[in-house]
């Protein structure tokens, strides 16, 4: 007998891409997503990056391919999706404090979630505190860093992991949870996926948590530079 999963037991999220960041494209973009997923609604819909790109833009975009972003108009259309029952909640990704403040000045529905890169090597304190102030939940992506800056090999992280008899990855994910965020680690390996879920029922002691927090901020893993930044033409 084939097992069936009830829709209410799933949490489905998707994102609005940069080329669709114009009010008249918001609803059609979501409708295409719903059609692809064969769903009547999704639980959370994010603005992926807070700037608009021209259709067919290069990576990084060339001169004239970064367009004006009507943030207020786009967000109003996102709010209409909630009112019409097509989306349960709406959120943002990769926002700065300045952009968040601008959004909140006109928003009738406060973003439910702000998704951002966050780990001990990039704590993102300013936007994290701004989100807490406004009751916006934070989701941390790239919690382990990346292949270029893999925090699982950081001596401080390894020391705490050995002390607690956990893997460095588990310590980094647990750090994010104890900080008050949800966290979305990614792996293509079954054993790592199983490891990554074993982060409940234990805590990092306060002294070790503070040591992890003291790791010096270096740089973002996902700056968006390769995708979005044209150093000749800007912006």
Automatic annotation (TrEMBL):
Q: Where is the NADP-dependent oxidoreductase domain?
A: 6-213
- Is NADP among the key words of this record? yes
Q: Does the keyword Ribonucleoprotein apply?
A: no
Its keywords, alphabetically, are:
NADP
Site described as Lowers pKa of active site Tyr, located at 15
Residue positions binding substrate: 48
Alphabetically, the GO molecular function entries are:
oxidoreductase activity
Determine the domain of life of the protein's source.
Eukaryota
Pfam families, per the entry:
Aldo_ket_red
Q: Which PANTHER family match?
A: ALDO/KETO REDUCTASE
The record's comment on protein family reads: Belongs to the aldo/keto reductase family.
The entry's protein name is NADP-dependent oxidoreductase domain-containing protein
Species lineage? Eukaryota, Viridiplantae, Streptophyta, Embryophyta, Tracheophyta
